[in-house]
Amino acid sequence: MTPRQAMELAIEKRLDLVKIAPNAKPPVCKIMDYGKYKYEATKREKESKKKQKVINVKEIRLSPNIESHDLSVKANRTIDFLKNGDRVKVSVRFRGREMGRTELGREVLDDFIELTSEYGAVDKKPKLEGRNMTMFLSPKSNK
């Protein structure tokens, strides 16, 4: 129908004439209550945001010559983070002469993985970047 007929029909029904595909030949229009449509669209958007889960990244710092009790305390803290659904970045910082013994840091991280293996899985394996060796743990999804 012609645009004028469509506009008259929309006015008669007390609704809005909305162009859906303005670039089509001929343009496609729809008669609807535009205010109600916008309201429902924002409502759907808010609902979808409620269902999303925000994942935080927490960080735990270790040293290559950490004692076993200190390591277990850090592991327990990491387990709390993993239970809450957060990802954890575990980093070992090397200072001075410790840079020559990076294998100690890898051993510390391997022990750390064993302590937290029940609740978390390794996302990124330990990697040396500058003076830090970092890895990422994520919570296990079978809970």
Helix content: 40-55%
Q: Output the CATH topology of the largest domain.
A: Translation Initiation Factor IF3
Q: What is the domain total for the residues? A: 2
Radius of gyration, in Å, reads 29 Å
Shape: rod-shaped
CATH class of the largest domain: Alpha Beta
| CATH superfamily grouping of the largest domain | Translation initiation factor 3 (IF-3), C-terminal domain
- CATH A-level architecture of the largest domain: 2-Layer Sandwich
Tell me, rounded to a whole number, the average pLDDT: 88
Strand tally? 6
* Main sheet properties: 4 strands, mixed
Strand order in space, largest sheet: 3-4-6-5
Q: Give the N-to-C terminal Cα separation.
A: 59 Å
Q: Helix/strand/pairing class, anyone?
A: alpha+beta
What is the helix/strand order?
A: HEEHEHEHEE
Summed up, the helix count is 4
Strand content: 25-35%
Give the low-confidence spans: none
Summarize the helices and strands and which ones pair or pack.
Elements: H1 3-13, E1 16-21, E2 28-32, H2 34-51, E3 57-62, H3 68-83, E4 87-93, H4 102-116, E5 120-129, E6 132-139
Parallel strand pairs: 3-4
Antiparallel strand pairs: 1-2, 4-6, 5-6
Helix pairs in contact: 3-4
Report on this structure.
The protein is an alpha+beta fold and 143 residues long. It folds into two domains: 3-51, Ubiquitin-like (UB roll), CATH 3.10.20; 57-139, 2-Layer Sandwich (Translation Initiation Factor IF3). It is built from four helices and six strands; from the N terminus they run H-E-E-H-E-H-E-H-E-E. The chain has a four-stranded mixed β-sheet with strand order 3-4-6-5, with helices on one face. It has a two-stranded antiparallel ribbon with strand order 1-2. Strand 3, helix 3 and strand 4 (87-93) form a beta-alpha-beta unit. Helix 3 (68-83) packs across helix 4. The protein is rod-shaped, with a radius of gyration of 29 Å.
